[in-house]
Amino acid sequence: MNFEFLLSVFTDYTLRNVALGSALLGITGGVIGAFAVLRRQSLLGDALSHAALPGICFAFLLSGGKLPLWLLLGGGLTAWLAALAMITVLRFTRLSEDAALGTMLASFFGFGIALLTFIQNGGNANQSGLDKFLFGQAATIVASDVTLMAVLAALALGTVVLLFKEFKLVSFDPAYAATLGLPAPLVGTLLTSLAVVAVMIGLQSVGVVLMAAMLVAPAVAARQWTDHLGKMLFLSAGFGGASGVSGALLSAAVTNLPTGPVVIVAISVIMILSLLFAPLRGLLWARISHARRDKSLREQQRAPKLGQLHDRAVPHER
């Protein structure tokens, strides 16, 4: 990429909007997803993003058009309803969390596919392109869409800043949070609602199928580098934002490369490199550290034996 191409990020209208939208998605998804990963709810993003599809379809049927605001609100509404249904199932049944998440994912996504097929066969000319919400249509992002994404991102990130201590307690020790009088279930529901907001930001960029990766991969990558929650949030946001911008630039530089999937590939590469080379938890780094410890232990065990051999070889003075 030459300097002129990099400069086009600021001068080219379409590329600027796509890069900003992808960056906002990466930053917000990275921060919110970090809490989901720490709470062992990595499948939550997958369930919520897939549950957004029927809401998008209902919004189209009710409005008769593809105005992004209504489609995102519809997707966010059904994703939030799926989250509430999951929480209710977990609270009043013996179903495990992964089973509840899988059930909601399959049920809502299946309903959404049925609605999408009904719309496509209904003869409405406005439905063209609606199926692109499955994998994203970042190239269609305009300035008003970026503004909407920025408002949603500010809402989500501002809530994290205001309630950081409460979110931290609920993520690491919900039982202790309850003993302090903190309404842990309510705080957990709020965190889930913020995940819905992150999904709304990503629907147009990466779509319902790929959105889960933007909630999980940045947080998993950041977790390999630090044990400190604050640093993890900053790293996760940085990884997500970097993958969004790099994915947008790469898709613009190479013909016929869709932005959404390229963004996912970029964050996946960051995650794999972190899993391998991060000095705290990286697999390769762990092997090197383990080899060094073994070598040091062998040397320590060898030292007394060498001393004994030396004593035998050198006669004692009388």
TrEMBL record:
Show the stretches that span the lipid bilayer: 20-38, 43-63, 69-92, 99-119, 139-164, 176-195, 201-221, 233-254, 260-284
Q: Which Pfam families match?
A: ABC-3
GO BP term, pick one: response to zinc ion
Q: Which organism is it from?
A: Deinococcus peraridilitoris (strain DSM 19664 / LMG 22246 / CIP 109416 / KR-200)
Q: How does the entry describe its membrane topology?
A: Multi-pass membrane protein
Highest taxon of the lineage: Bacteria
Q: Which GO terms describe its cellular component?
A: ATP-binding cassette (ABC) transporter complex
Tell me the keywords, alphabetical order. Cell membrane, Membrane, Plasmid, Transmembrane, Transmembrane helix, Transport
Its recorded name reads ABC-type Mn2+/Zn2+ transport system, permease component
Subcellular location as annotated: Cell membrane
Family of the protein in this entry: Belongs to the ABC-3 integral membrane protein family.
- Region Disordered: start-end pairs: 296-318
